[in-house]
Fold these 2 entries.
Entry 1:
Amino acid sequence: MKSRLDWTKAKLNRIEDIATDVREFTFDTEAVLGRFQPGSHINIKVETAHGPALRTYTCVHNGPRQLTIAVKRHENSRGGSAFMWQLQPEVAVEISLPENRFELSWGAPSYLLIAGGIGITPVAGMAKALAARGAEVRMVYAARSAQHFAYGDELKSVLGDRLQQFASDAGQRVDFAREIAALPEGGEAYACGPIRMLNDLKAAWAEAGRHFSRLRFEVFGDSGTFAERDFEVEILNRSGRIKVRPDETLLDALRAADVPMIYDCQRGECGLCAVGVLEHSGAIDHRDVFFSEGEKASGERMCACVSRFDGGLARIDTGYRL
Ligand code: FES
């Protein structure tokens, strides 16, 4: 069961490579879109080797009838980035209308923006919008190398020395404790990046005694502690085993096997897809931002849409509901 989305037909108007492994796609949409909101996202219907699927991408910008997203090419693509990267101009696709679950509040006295890799897509729009309003804003942006900074030049021209870039191949790392200390009390932080970066940020935020209501973040659904591997699951009160391939999620595999599931965001945010974990031989790779660190450490539940097991066999209870 999935919450209802409103869809529009769209035609691919323009493709541009904007950084190593990052390609921007601009679509002309049939439907009239609302005003652009930084942090908003769309779903797109894609074809994978295993059939049709939905993938979610952040809107980098939209006009009344035009919408731009940026997509990273993934080595272990579950089919979404592989599908997107083979698209050619004029092709017709179906996309859902933008919705926003990573909203920027406009009333904070100051802002710290944090982006890691393709996590720049929601954060860049926030930086430009805040700078245009004259807000007090600083940004730290980490990427694998100088060639991986999508929108780096544009942001530099908007933010000047309020932007700091960190290239990991040059040994540069963000010092979250220092960045948080430089954020005036009452300031808000917005972050998007891989889960390990966000875990470090959350730990530093807690250590600094900052209130969690002032830290907002979004994670890549596909960034985890372990590389994707096959694993198998058995389900309480159901016979047989279900195999989960490296290129599919546990939720996808359960649905393909006709296991009734409730889900919504498919980004590890809402918790609707949570299942109980009864036994497991491979470690749980929690990739959601829904459960607390304590809940993750207990190993009792996991979000089937993003989290997975590091190989082996697990027994789960899909009857578990929040
Ligand atoms: S569907 Fe929202 S966390 Fe899985």
Entry 2:
Amino acid sequence: MKLNALPRVRLANLPTPLQELPNLTKALKGPRIYVKRDDLTGLALGGNKTRKLEYLMADAIAKKADHIVTGAGFHSNWCTQAAAAARKLGMEITLIKTGPGEDYKPEEYDGNHLLHTLMGAEMQIVRPENFKKALDETVESLKESGHTPYVLLDAGSTPLGVAGYINAMLELESQSREIGVDFNYLVHATGSGGTQAGLVLGAKALSLDTKIIGASTGGRKALEQVENVYRVISEASRALGLNISVHKEDVIVKDEYAGSGYGFVTEGKIEAVRMAAETEGLILDPVYTATSMACLVDLCRKGFFTKSDSVVFLHTGGSAGLFPYRDCFKAYALGESLPWTIPPWSPASKNPKTE
Ligand SMILES: Cc1ncc(COP(=O)(O)O)c(C=O)c1O
């Protein structure tokens, strides 16, 4: 494996802590539950993308980039982490963010959008079908004005980004040896797929029996996400020259916890966020870690794990995403029905300005 030879810029405080969750374990009457705190990577508000960016930004530096161009959803954690990395390394950043319409203006500056604004990111809001055009035009116009743009695609789920999560698995294995626990399962949120790809590759490289369960966050159904993660694994293996044999069956995806779309709200997710906060003071986000915790809770309740199993929950960050969902959490706390399940900033939402 060429991992050690890859250029890397230090952005994360590593290793992130591995902690036991005894109260959650008790509440769920199931396996021993631990958490790997990748929400504490230390870049901006932390999260899984810091590990990917260590390799991606090293490549941007090597290519003498002065302006990062990337994009994702309106309240994207990826955009926050990419903007923080760019700023820390003295670069400009443009974010192409998808929303309900080109003229979408939020009622309030909140959550990740507020953080993007604070970091002085240039921003364009576009419909998803116009994303590529906007990205290409931005790159062209930066080049014309003498800049050296560097494009970060697919929320960092490209070979260099995957390297970050192969490393994370090596780190977790060393921590688990220290505390003498062999993890039977790791549960985490899977979106663009790079995190799961790196974890699966890392587990295979170390011949671990840990099964990696990705809870899909609504963008893809299970079979589609298995294909997607497997593609990311294959591309990373080729590009990084890895000689690790991975089968599609090694990629486990559950798709029943996200609601009917990316960023949508369900009572299961809200309950999961409340449960983690109430039992362990562990703050999750409503989009990603709520989905993976809802998955963990449900699998415990269904008796999927045995009592002697040890399960690690990978906290992938995203806490800034909590605040734009405050009305839903308030309604849940008051026992009222949820005011909305499709966020107003989702492309699936109706934009009153374009009606
Ligand atoms: C908080 C959080 N968790 C998990 C993920 C999913 O990671 P990946 O896109 O590598 O599948 C993301 C992606 O944006 C995220 O922001």
